[in-house]
Design a protein that fits this description.
29% helix; 7 helices; alpha+beta; globular; 5-stranded antiparallel beta sheet; single chain; 5-stranded mixed β-barrel; OB fold (Dihydrolipoamide Acetyltransferase, E2P)
Length: 232
């Protein structure tokens, strides 16, 4: 976070007062987070427990074969049919972009790690690691989905720690101007997990999953059981 602020200061020629204004809300959130959790919980997260963010590229999709025809996999079991002309010049596995005027075009240089990344809007914070989202597959095509933050275990909402975690997330989202998500699925229970990135007014991007870990509101959890999903 410090490095990002340093870069923004240089790029936008901030004065010391402008820099203080950017730091103050982040510092307030960090202090409130530390003081709102138990000593046992605040000491539970080590620096090695942080997640490596999965941040793809918005608007990159892959051509797949479904029922003997080629189409574009937009994620969340949503597909875009290719025209006959597009089907002739594209192949299964091609990475593409969808253009309103140009149709489906190859995305040169794209790779698998770019996939399943979307602009989104948070509709409701269920608890510290579960969000209802409005997810945009295209500019005018969206769906509503409940997502769980990848790699986290947050205390139950009926505890003081759980309530503090939800407040922490609500405050961060309330101060953001844009939300980007990259989604994955656990293999067994077919539920969507997500890395959530929040853009601040200054253009800084914050990785929500790690902020919960860094501020003592969550512990790492990479394997889920059916009972975990039932609680959602």
């Amino acid at each position: 976070m410090r490095k990002r602020l340093e870069q923004q200061t240089v790029q936008q020629s901030w004065t010391s007062r402008q820099l203080e204004e950017e730091i103050r809300p982040l510092l307030a959130l960090s202090v409130s987070a530390v003081t709102s959790v138990s000593p046992a919980q605040s000491g539970a997260v080590k620096s090695g427990d942080q997640l490596s963010p999965k941040r793809g590229t918005i608007g990159i999709y892959r051509v797949v074969a479904v029922n003997d025809r080629l189409c574009v996999d937009q994620g969340f079991r949503c597909y875009h049919d290719l025209s006959p002309a597009e089907a002739k010049r594209l192949r299964e596995g091609n990475f593409v972009r969808l253009h309103s005027r140009l149709g489906v075009r190859k995305a040169e240089g794209a790779k698998a790690s770019d996939l399943f990344t979307y602009r989104a809007r948070v509709l409701r914070v269920v608890d510290g690691d579960t969000l209802w989202m409005e997810i945009y597959l295209e500019s005018k095509k969206w769906l509503k989905e409940k997502l769980r933050l990848r790699g986290l275990d947050v205390p139950e909402l009926d505890t003081a720690e759980g309530k503090a975690a939800r407040r922490f997330v609500e405050e961060l989202i309330g101060k953001s101007v844009a939300v980007t998500i990259t989604t994955t699925k656990p293999d067994k229970w077919d539920r969507y997990l997500s890395d959530v990135f929040l853009e601040t007014k200054s253009g800084q991007e914050l990785f929500l999953n790690n902020l919960l870990l860094e501020n003592g509101h969550a512990m790492r959890k990479d394997k889920f059981t059916l009972s975990n999903w039932d609680k959602m």
